[in-house]
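Please describe what follows:
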Amino acid sequence: KGFSPDGIEFYYSAISQVGFIRKQAVEPQGIIYKVRETKEMIYEQDLVYIKPEGDASLTPGSVYTIYRTLKPIKDADTNKYIGIQHYLLGVIEVTQSEPDYAIAKVVTSNLNMRVGDLVMPYEGQSPKISLAKSQEGLQGKVIISELHELLIGDQRVVFIDKGRRDGVKIGQSYSVYYQEREYLDANATESILLAPVDFGKIVVLRTEETTAAALVIAAEKSI
C-alpha cells in the first residue's frame, strides 16, 4: 500500500549483517584459511589469515565483508530457481599483506564466522533508513527468513521475491497478508477467494535485482 513518509526514518544497527539473494553467487576475493591462536569460532579483534582468490589484491587498510553462500533457493510452490543466499558474517580490515596471503583483523562478527568462510568487498550502508513511498500495486511473496525459521515473527529479516526491477527501494513499507478460499455452502461446487487479511508489515532494508531483504516491524501472527 502506497504512502508518503515525509522524511521519517528509523535506525537499524545491524544493517551491515543483512544478507541478500542473487541469481549468481558473488565471486570471492579470498577465503579464511586460518585464525591466529587456532580456535573453532572467530570473534571481534581476532586476526585471520586470508588466501586471495583469482587476481584479488588484499592491500593493508582495505575492508571486506566475510560471507557464506547457502544452498540454492527455489520457489516452494513452483520449484522455480530464485537464487543463492549470501549470509553475511562480519567485517574485516587487512593489516598486513604477504606474497601468498594477507592478515586481517576482525572488526565486527556475528559469532558464526569460521575457517573456510569467504571474502568480498565491503559495501557500507548507513543504519539510518529513510522511509520511502512504496510501489503501488506490488504483489510479491515472502521467500524465506534469513535464519530459515519455520515461524517468522517481529524484528526478523525476511527475503521477498521482488527487487529493483520491480520498483522496490530501501525504506519502502509493505503489508503482509493471507487470502483464503472457501465454499459458500455445503452444496457449492466451486470455492470463492475471500478478501485479503493484512496481519503484518515489513520495511525494505536491502535490494537486489530480483529480490529484497526486509525487516518485519509488525506481525499479529507468525509469517
About this structure: The longest strand covers residues 81-97. The chain has a mean pLDDT of 91. The chain is about 0% helix and 45% strand. The two ends are 18 Å apart (CA to CA).
